[in-house]
Amino acid sequence: xxxxxxxxxxxxxxxxxxxxxxxxxxxxxxxxxxxxxxxxxxxxxxxxxxxxxxxxxxxxxxxxxxxxxxxxxxxxxxxxxxxxxxxxxxxxxxxxxxxxxxxxxxxxxxxxxxxxxxxxxxxxxxxxxxxxxxxxxxxxxxxxxxxxxxxxxxxxxxxxxxxxxxxxxxxxxxxxxxxxxxxxxxxxxxxxxxxxxxxxxxxxxxxxxxxxxxxxxxxxxxxxxxxxxxxxxxxxxxxxxxxxxxxxxxxxxxxxxxxxxxxxxxxxxxxxxxxxxxxxxxxxxxxxxxxxxxxxxxxxxxxxxxxxxxxxxxxxxxxxxxxxxxxxxxxxxxxxxxxxxxxxxxxxxxxxxxxxxxxxxxxxxxxxxxxxxxxxxxxxxxxxxxxxxxxxxxxxxxxxxxxxxxxxxxxxxxxxxxxxxxxxxxxxxxxxxxxxxxxxxxxxxxxxxxxxxxxxxxxxxxxxxxxxxxxxxxxxxxxxxxxxxxxxxxxxxxxxxxxxxxxxxxxxxxxxxxxxxxxxxxxxxxxxxxxxxxxxxxxxxxxxxxxxxxxxxxxxxxxxxxxxxxxxxxxxxxxxxxxxxxxxxxxxxxxxxxxxxxxxxxxxxxxxxxxxxxxxxxxxxxxxxxxxxxxxxxxxxxxxxxxxxxxxxxxxxxxxxxxxxxxxxxxxxxxxxxxxxxxxxxxxxxxxxxxxxxxxxxxxxxxxxxxxxxxxxxxxxxxxxxxxxxxxxxxxxxxxxxxxxxxxxxxxxxxxxxxxxxxxxxxxxxxxxxxxxxxxxxxxxxxxxxxxxxxxxxxxxxxxxxxxxxxxxxxxxxxxxxxxxxxxxxxxxxxxxxxxxxxxxxxxxxxxxxxxxxxxxxxxxxxxxxxxxxxxxxx
Length: 875
Hints:
single chain; Substrate Binding Domain Of Dnak, Chain:A, Domain 2; 5 domains; 6-stranded antiparallel β-sheet; metal ion binding; hydrolase; metal-binding; carbohydrate binding
C-alpha cells in the first residue's frame, strides 16, 4: 500500500487540548488561554522550536483576538509558516450529540478561519470525543482529509495495531491512527531533567512498539490546558542520541501521519462502522441523558437552523430576497459554541451550563427571526385577490422536499369588525373537516420600519385540521371564512372517535388501563401492544458521565389513576393520563441504596391522535422533586429480534441488542445507546418505531418483551465521583453539580409509529424528520401577487432518500442540496426543481465541484447505500 522503510522516527508533538469550559467557565479558562498564547509567542522566538498544535481548533483564535486584536498578524505569520497548526475544526465536537450538518458546518467554518490565517491542518484530529460515528470517514473525505487521529471507542484486544484503515458504511476509507490507552498525553509535562524525561519517553516508545504497524511513532507532549515547554528542541536532540535506532525530533501531526503512510505494513487491518467500545477506554455514554434540557435545546436550535432558517432563506432568495448568510452563520456560531463535548454532554459545573442556555436562546432567536422574515416575504407575494372581507388566507409551509400530511394547530386573527362564532376552512374551494378549539378577542402587533409598533384589537379563532398534500419544500394556501350561526358539532364526519378511556382514528385504538399504561391496537396490522407508556424509575448513584444504580436499588413503576378526554373534535382527540410517582427522595448517605423517605412527583401524559395521521403523539410533563434517579418510559414491542436500528448521522445504524460480558472492563458495558431521532424494532412482518425530539438515549429491554425505553431524565449531583460500581476510575474532577439533579418541571415529546415491515419500508426516517420539523403558518389578507397559492421549490420522489441541507453555496450564487441514502440498498430517485437553473454538479462537503450531472431529461440520480451526495445547482 505504501513505501516501506526500516527506519523508525518518533515525533514529539507539542500541543494543548483546550476545553473552553468544563470545571471552570469559559471566561475563567480564557485567562489561561491568553497566558498560553503569550508563552507560545515567546517560545516561538526560538527558531528551533518548530511546531505547536492547537488541538485541531480555530475558535481559540477568535477567543484570543477578542481581547488582543492587535496580535492577529503575528498569529497569521506563525500559522502561515506552519509553526502553529490550527484547524480543520471550529470547535472539537462531541460526535454523537450534534447533528451531521452541525459537524459539516464545524468543518466549513474551521477551514474558512484557518485559511484566512494562512493554513489548515488537514488532519482529522479527534482526540477526546466519547466514541465515534460511523460516517466520520465520509465526512472527513468530503473535506479532502484522508486520515484521522483519534482516541476512545476501540477494543485493543480486537485490533492489531496503532494504525489501520477505517471504512465507513458507504465504503469510504480513512488512514486511521488510534492513540494509546493513555490518550493524547503519552509525552506530557516532560521534565527539564533530561534523564527523567528519557524514562518517560522510553516507556511510551515501548508501549507504541508493542502495537507497531508502521515506523512512525507519535509522542504527544501536552494535555488539557498545558502550555508549550520551551526546552523541547534541546530535549529532542538529547533523546535522539539516547535512541540510536530511532530518529527523534520535534514535529507535528502531519509529519507523523505522512511517515506512517510511507512506512505502514502491507497487511493493514480494516475496521468498519462506529466505534463505541468502552472496554479499554471510557466512552461515558450516560452523557446522552445528563442534563436532558440541554439536549432538547440543542435539538430545537439544530432543527430551526437546518430545516427552517437555511431552506426558507433559499426559497426567499429564489424570489429575489437577500440571503442573510452572515446572520445564519452568527446563529450557527452561537450554537457550535455549545458543541464541545464537555458542554453538550452536560458534564461540567453548573455555571457552564447556565451560560450555555443563553447561547441556545440566541441561536434559537436568530433562527426564528430569519425564518419568520423569509415566510413573511414569500407570503407577501402570494396572490389571493379573490378573498372577501370576512375571509383570510392561511399559508402552510413545509421545509422538507417531500409532500406530507400533517395536523395543524393555529390561531387565525380577523379584524375587530369581523364577528363570528365559527369558521369554515376551504382547500381549493372545497370545505374540509376542521376543529374549532376556541375563539375570542386578542391583540395583534403590526411592525412598521418607519414608525413605532401598533397594537390592534382582533377577533381570533383557534383551529385544528389535517393539512393534506402540502407540497414538497414549499407551501399551500387555504381559505378561512368567518361564519355566524354555523351549527356544530356533528356537522363533520371523521375517523376520530373516543370513549371514557379510549381514543381512536383510522389507524389506532389507544385504551387507558387502570394503572395509567395504555394498550395500543394497530388496526392496519391487527396487533395489540399492551402496557405501553409505562414509566420506570431507578436510583442513580453515578455522576454526569455515568449512570450507576446503587447496589440496593428500588425500581418504581408508574401507577397513574386519573384519565380524561381532551380536545375531542373532528381533527384530533387527546387522552390525558395523570397522577404522581412516589419516589425515594435521594440516594442514602452511604450511596449504596435509595433513601427510605419518599416524595410525590406529579406526572402527566397527553396522548393525541390526529385524523388520517399514522402517528401517536405523546407529550409528558414531570415535576421532578427527587434526586439521584433516572426516569424512563417503556413500550413493550413483543418483537422477536436480536438487533435494533437507530437513527444516526447520515445513517441508520444496526446494533445488537445483547450487551457483552464486561467483567474486567474499565467501564461496564452500557445497556443504553444513542439515537438522533428514532429507534426501531421489526420482524418479518411488522415494526415498532419510537420517534422523539431531543431525547438521545434509548435502551432495549429483552426481559420486558423487547421494550423500547427512552430516558426522559437523569438526576445526579456530581460532575464526577470515584466510588462507582459501573466505572473503575474518575472521568473528571470530583466537583459538586447540584443543578444536574434537574429539579423542577420538564416536558418531553415522543411519538409512536406502528407499521408493516422495517423502518426503511415504512419511511420512518421521513416520518421522524417530519415530526421534529413540524410545519409553520402565516395568514394574509386580500392582496395581489406574483406567486401562486400552492408551490413546491424542490421535490425528492424516493421516500428512502433523506435530505439534510438546503442552503446557498458559501462562495457563489449556487444552491446546495445535500441528500443521503441511509438504507442498505442502492436507491434511484428523481429530483424536481421548480425554479430556473442551468448546470447541476456533484460536489463534496466543502462545496467544491467534482463533476457535472447530466439533466436534459430531468435530474435523475442513483444514490448508493449510505452515500452522502452534495448537489450544487447553478441558478
